[in-house]
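tool_call: predict_structure(chain=1)
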Amino acid sequence: MASTETKDPATAGEATDETGDIAGLEAGLDALESRVVDRQPWLRTVVTKAFPPLVAIALVLALWQLAYHFELKPHYLLPSPVDVGRSLQQKWLEGTLLSFVWTSVSRGALGFVASVGIGTVLGLIVARVKPVRAAIGPILSGLQSLPSVAWVPAAIIWFGLSDATIYAVVLLGAVPSIANGLVAGVDQISPLYLRAGRTIGATGLAGVRHVLLPAALPGYIAGLKQGWAFSWRSLMAAELIVNAPDLGTGLGQLLEQGRELQDMSWVLAAILLILIVGIGIELLIFAPVERRVLRSRGLLVKS
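tool_result:
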């Protein structure tokens, strides 16, 4: 004779209440982890982001003007912000300012694109092939710490006073940073992702494209940012030394011309332009890309 079990209504009610409590607790935890962020008006966003840098710039200009006023250095050695502004205005009215900037930016962009191609392939090989990593991994780290200007004399001997010398210095300065950034990004990938990729058949180039590079993207972008900084610095070092009429005039050559003429307003104006271009590339290109990647992975905390 089969026996039938009858559940106590009180016990069933307690189980239902317990399940409801757990569900409520999970919902509460989810609510704590998720944040509802109201979209701020664009004007308020611009003011919030632009006000602190503007205050910092105003403070630097004020201290600069005070140093000029109290003659911490003779005026021909330390011109005022107004004198530097007049020097920039003169170059603008001559119609040469944008050509100086474009010459350097185009060189930097072309050299950086080539560095990305070489550094990405090199970084993947170093990250995934252990003998190669053991052989040239320390060399890459050493090259990254080597000042870019140290390559200029060798590049001049190899290529002469030509664009090839400038691009060689840019490549030697940027490639190690990009490769090391990608290696660091690959090292931080969870082995679970790689096993999952192999399970679904993502091997070889498909695995690199669809699993390895996307998973290593935060470290890779950090390497790209550092690679651009190194390529820009390398470019300025090369332009300072490699100076020939056939090469055109970039910001580094402009800086060297100011030194030769002993014109500090010219020199400081060139330094200011170099700084503005470097900051502008960072803010307009790399910062938005980095924020987008971090936000898509839940790594960017919104307040």
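agent: The two ends are 67 Å apart (CA to CA). Proceeding to next step.
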